[in-house]
Amino acid sequence: MRRSRLSVALAAFALALSGLVAGPAEAANLLTNPGFEAGSLSGWTCANATTVSTPVHGGGYALAATPVGADYAQCAQTVSVQPNTTYTVSAWVRGNPVYLGITGGASTWSGNSGAYNQLSLTFTTGSQTSAQLYLHGWYGAGTYYADDVVLDGPGGSTPGTPGAPATPQVGTVSSNSIALSWGAAAGTVTGYRVYEGSTVVATVTGTSATISGLKACETHSYAVAAYNSAGESPKTSTTSATTTGCVDTGLPKHSLIGYLHASFANGSGYVRMADVPAAWDIIDLAFGEPTSVTSGDIRFNRCPVAECPNVESDADFIAAIKAKQAQGKKVLISIGGQNGQVQLTTTAARDKFVSSVSAIIDKYGLNGLDIDFEGHSLSLNAGDTDFRNPTTPVIVNLISAVKTLKAKYGSGFVLTMAPETFFVQVGYQFYGGSGAGDARTGAYLPVIHALRDSLTVLHVQDYNSGPVMGLDNQYHNMGGAEFHIAMTDMLKAGFSVANTGQFFPGLRPDQIAVGLPAAVSAGNGYTSPSDVQTAVNCLVKGSGCSSYTLRGGTSPALRGLMTWSINWDKYYNWEFQNSHEPFLNSLP
Fold first, then answer.
1. Which residue from 78, 80, 236, 588 has the fewest beta carbons nearer than 10 Å?
2. Which value, to the nearest 10 degrees, does the dihedral of the CA atoms of residues 330, 333, 335, 338 take?
3. Closest CA to 516 of 458, 580, 585, 461
4. d(CA 308, CA 102)
5. How does pLDDT run across 538-579, given as a tens digit for each residue?
6. d(CA 542, CA 529)
C-alpha cells in the first residue's frame, strides 16, 4: 500500500507494454497435437516439415519446417467451428519470416529469427462450419520453428462426431476427490473425456467419473467432451467444485477489509482502534517497515503524538484490538507499503524477518500478516522463468519466511496480500525473469502460488495502475466496473504466464477480494459505489457484465472488498463502508 496512494511504477509499466504481445486465455484449444508433443506431425498437413526436440518453446517438441524451391513449407490443420463466432489464434514462432493465419481470413507474421516470439490474431466466422489454420515460412529464408499453437473458441460439429454431453454436475466431494456425472451425448459414443483446462484428467466409457488425487481445499473446473472414431464433440460448459478440508477462518462469507493508518496520519487524520466501526471484518495495521531495505528487521512504530495528537496508549491500543477480536474481527500487521521496501536477499534477513514479525504479532496479539510489498521489494533474476520453482533469493526467502510463520501460529493464522496489478495480472503479458523488460512484472506470482494453501485473501490493488490486458486480450483501464471484472476474473480463472509456456492456476473465490481506493484522495482509480457493485454483481451472479464474458465463471463465494483506507473513508463521511457493507450482506 502507498501512504499517498498515488502513481505506482507507471513508467516501468509503460516500458513493459512496449514489449511482447499476450496470448489468448486458456479455454478450448480446438487443435489436435497443438504443441507437437506427440513427437510427430499427427493432426497436421505439412510440407518439408518434421518435429524437433530443440529449440522448443514449451514441452519436449516443436515444429521445424524448411521452405524448398517454390514451396514455403506450410503446415495446416482444419477444425470444426461455429458460424458467426469470434476465435483467437496464437503461436510461438522462431524464424525469418514466419506467417500465421486463417485460410481466406486474417494473417500476421514476424521476423524474429533469434528467439521464440508470439504471434496472435482473431477472426470471426461467417456461415462457415470449418476453418483452416496455417503456418508457413518464405522462399529461401531457411528453417522456421513453431510451438504451442492455439485456436481458441467453441468447437463445431464434424460429421459423424457425437453431440455435446450435458454440462457435468458435481456429486460427492471429499478432501481429495470430486465426483462428476453428466447426461449422455447424442449419436454414437465411444467414451467421454473430462478436461481441466486443456488437459484430459479422465477418460471413461460411462457418464460419470471421479477425479482423485487432489489436495484439500482446492477449486477445480471441469468440462466434458464425447468422442468416437470420427472425432470429438464440443466441450460442455465448465463446472467448478472445491474439495473439502478448508480451514474455517471465522470471517463472514463476504467481508469488508480496510487498512488503518496506525503509524502515520497521511492527511486524513488518525483513527483510534476503538473508533473503527464494526463493519470492518479485517483491519490491516499500516505499516511495519524494515530498519533497512535488506535487514529483514521489521519494526512497527505507532503514530507519534506530534503527528497524531489523539493517538491512544499502547495499553489502550492492545485492549481495543482484543475487543475487536472478541467481535470476530481479524487484526493483522501489514508489512511494506510505499516506504517499506523489504528485500530478503539472505537467509539471515529471512530469519530476522520471522523473528521481528513474530515479536510484533505477539506484542499486540494479532491474528496474522498482510504482505504489501511494493516498489522494488520483489523482482526476478534473469533466467528465473518458472513461477512454480523460483530461484531468486528475495522470492525464495519470502516464501520460506511466511511458511515458517504459518507453521508457528497454526491454522488460525490469517494471511493476506495486497500486490499491485503490475506484479500479478501484468504477468499475463510480461514475466520479469524471462527478459521481458521490467524484472518486477509478475513477481508476486511465485509467492502467491507457493503460499496458495495458506492464503486467506488476495486483494490486488485495482488502482494506481496503467492499462492491463485481460483474458479477452483487450486492455482495461482503472476507474470503472469493467476493470474490476476483468482483473478479478484473471485471479479466478488463472492465466498463461507471458512467454514461459506455463499456466498460473486460479484461486478459490473465497480467497479473492477486490481492492479499491476509499475516495478520490486515497489513490488513482477511484470507482463509484454503483460501478463497484455492478462489478461485484457480475462476478458473483453473472449479471450486468456488459460485453465481458467471465472466463472463470461466477464466484458466489467471492470474499469481498478491500479499501485503502479506513482513515480516508472516515474523512469522506464513511461513503465506502455505508455503501458496501449492506450490499455485501445482501449477497447470497
1. 588
2. 80
3. 461
4. 65
5. 999 999 999 999 988 899 999 999 999 999 999 999 999 999
6. 18
- Distance, CA of 176 to chain centre: 23
- Joined together, the cell numbers standing for residue 280 give 470492518
Q: 518-531 b/e with 16+ CB inside 10 Å = b?
A: bbebbbbbbbeeeb
Per residue, what are the HEC states of 124-160? Answer: ECCCCCEEEEEEECCCCCCCEEEEEEEEECCECCCCC
Could you report the per-residue pLDDT of 469-503, keeping only the tens digit for each? 999 889 999 999 999 999 999 999 898 898 787 88
SS3 177: coil
Local confidence band at 435 (pLDDT 50, 70, 90 cut-offs)? low
| Structure-block grid coordinates of residue 271 | 483513527
How buried is residue 383: exposed, middle or buried, by Cβ count under 10 Å (0-12/13-18/19+)? exposed
Cell numbers for 359, please give them: 515479536
Angle 347-364/314-326 helices, nearest 10 degrees? 80
Distance of CA 414 to the CA centre of its chain: 20
Q: What is the distance between the alpha carbons of residues 287 and 520, in angstroms, rounded to a whole number?
A: 21
**Rounded distance, CA 75 to CA 568, Å?**
59
Cell of 108: 500476421
Q: Are 353 and 401 in contact (CB under 8 A)?
A: yes
Count other Cβ atoms within 10 Å, centred on residue 408. Answer: 12
Cβ–Cβ < 8 Å for 568, 268: yes
Write down the residue that cell numbers 503490475 correspond to. 422
Q: Which of 250, 261, 218 is nearest to 559 (CA)?
A: 250
pLDDT for residue 499? 77
| Residue 212 predicted with pLDDT over 60 | yes
pLDDT at residue 371, rounded to an integer? 98
Distances (CA, A) of 22 to 120, 133, 487, 488: 8, 19, 15, 18
> DSSP secondary-structure letter at 476?
E
Per-residue pLDDT, 346: 98
Size (the chain), residues = 588
Nearest-angstrom CA–CA distance, 254 and 514: 11
d(CA 575, CA 571): 9
Calculate Rg over the CA atoms of the chain: 25
HEC-encoded secondary structure of 252-271: CCCEEEEEEECCCCCCCCCC
Rounded Cα gap, residues 327 and 276, in angstroms: 12
Q: Are 224 and 168 in contact (CB under 8 A)?
A: yes
Q: Are 352 and 288 in contact (CB under 8 A)?
A: no
Q: Which amino acid is at 435?
A: G
What is the three-state SS of 184-201? CCCCCCCEEEEEECCEEE
Closest C-alpha among 492, 455, 456 to residue 250: 456
**DSSP secondary-structure letter at 68?**
B
Which amino acids are annotated catalytic? 374
Provide the β-strand partners of residue 283. Answer: 258, 331
pLDDT band at 353 (very low <50, low <70, confident <90, very high): very high
